Task: inverse folding
């Protein structure tokens, strides 16, 4: 049985926006390619001269707006997503004549802006978002090639890489129902099972895992704070103005007492989403495109409601569980299933998070996650001009409110009377995504991307 063995820290990654599949994944691909070049035979290394990169799928169709070429270049220059200099990243490839050197051991190879090509036609690779990285000699002899698939949330697969047999986790599950049965079989709490599995994967103790999740929460809150402090226009031709700070000011004005709660949720989600759109560091939850939704709710609970860090970490364990189940049984990639896999799954994570923070049972958690995801089914990914701005930023705010409402409905309902389970709605999402036209899956070839004139 193919069971879930994903680390929480593969779900919650810190990295630069605006899209985990377009920035974090490709940056990791560039860095991995460098590492593999260093182990080539001496004869090939001595002949190394230049590197070329080819981008396919939505990496090509919306890659310029997402900064995919800059992300690959940063990876080839040795940058890592969690600690990259976002200002330097934004300036890469600005000079088309500049020659860069990728170093691997005592050797190096050159590349320029023109070395990274966008292949906008159809392709036969098994995943939409594919990268081909190639090393050539000075006479254009191919010395090495690696094919990578960026499959959403910053996750990366390498062609030919085999998944190790066996499952390293002590508690094996593949969906929400099998996880629920584990809690009954072993008389354990969900948190205990998640922590023990994570300890087996990461080698960290329970205390270390919780401490690291606290660091993730700090990074989430930092993205919200930076967004609330920022103003001006976001990068790109749309020239979209930031508005999180203004929404926050309106929320705190005396004449908005009856709407303050909703406006604060909106402001916090917008703030982190705007930081993502600006290419700054955010936390994938489960992707960068949805990196405003859960962080906005976390910030609200921590800053407005005064919820303790211990409770927030409890919620993060559940949010990570929901994301892992969604990724295993459907997808968290906009290029694979549309925005239902990003904002929809983020809403499910957030609704389950809220139920966990407030001490509700696993059945209520599952009910909250199901309600949140169900009402995002069919949501297309149609970024205007290929930028993660319209409709992406507002979707984070609307999704946060939907997640909270889903939690509220679940918290006052009898979960035994819920007719649809979380596993069933995931199956529906996968079927919907498979039936969805490629025009609505991050390619900017349909929906708002072609019906809206911005500038």
Result:
């Amino acid at each position: 049985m193919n069971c879930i063995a994903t680390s929480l820290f593969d779900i919650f990654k810190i990295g630069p926006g605006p899209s985990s599949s377009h920035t974090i994944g490709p940056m990791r691909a560039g860095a991995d390619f460098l590492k593999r070049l260093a182990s080539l035979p001496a004869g090939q290394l001595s002949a190394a001269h230049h590197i070329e990169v080819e981008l396919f799928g939505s990496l090509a169709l919306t890659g310029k707006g997402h900064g995919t070429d800059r992300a690959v270049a940063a990876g080839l220059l040795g940058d890592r997503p969690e600690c990259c200099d976002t200002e330097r990243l934004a300036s890469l490839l600005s000079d088309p004549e500049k020659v860069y050197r990728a170093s691997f051991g005592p050797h190096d190879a050159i590349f320029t802006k023109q070395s990274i090509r966008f292949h906008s036609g159809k392709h036969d690779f098994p995943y939409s978002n594919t990268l081909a990285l190639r090393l050539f000699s000075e006479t254009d002899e191919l010395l090495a090639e690696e094919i990578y698939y960026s499959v959403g949330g910053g996750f990366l697969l390498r062609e030919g890489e085999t998944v190790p047999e066996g499952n390293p986790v002590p508690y094996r599950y593949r969906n929400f129902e099998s996880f629920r049965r584990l809690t009954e079989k072993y008389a354990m709490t969900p948190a205990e099972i998640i922590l023990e599995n994570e300890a087996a994967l990461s080698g960290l103790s329970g205390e270390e895992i919780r401490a690291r999740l606290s660091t993730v929460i700090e990074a989430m809150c930092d993205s919200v704070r930076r967004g609330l402090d920022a103003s001006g226009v976001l990068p790109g031709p749309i020239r979209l103005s930031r508005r999180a700070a203004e929404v926050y000011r309106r929320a705190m004005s005396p004449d908005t007492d009856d709407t303050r709660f909703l406006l604060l949720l909106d402001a916090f989600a917008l703030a982190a989403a705007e930081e993502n759109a600006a290419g700054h560091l955010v936390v994938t939850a489960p992707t960068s495109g949805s990196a405003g939704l859960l962080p906005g709710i976390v910030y609200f609970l921590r800053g407005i409601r005064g919820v303790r860090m211990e409770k927030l970490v409890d919620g993060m364990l559940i949010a990570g569980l929901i994301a892992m189940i969604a990724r295993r049984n459907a997808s968290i990639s906009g290029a694979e299933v549309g925005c239902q896999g990003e904002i929809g799954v983020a809403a499910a994570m957030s609704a389950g998070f809220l139920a966990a923070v407030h001490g509700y049972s696993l059945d209520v958690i599952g009910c909250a996650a199901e309600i949140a995801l169900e009402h995002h089914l069919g949501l297309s990914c149609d970024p205007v001009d290929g930028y993660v701005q319209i409709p992406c930023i507002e979707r984070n705010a609307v999704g946060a409110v939907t997640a909270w409402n889903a939690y509220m409905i679940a918290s006052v309902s009898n979960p035994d009377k819920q007719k649809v389970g979380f596993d069933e709605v995931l199956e529906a999402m996968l079927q919907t995504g498979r039936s969805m036209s490629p025009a609505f899956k991050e390619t900017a070839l349909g929906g708002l991307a072609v019906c809206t004139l911005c500038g």
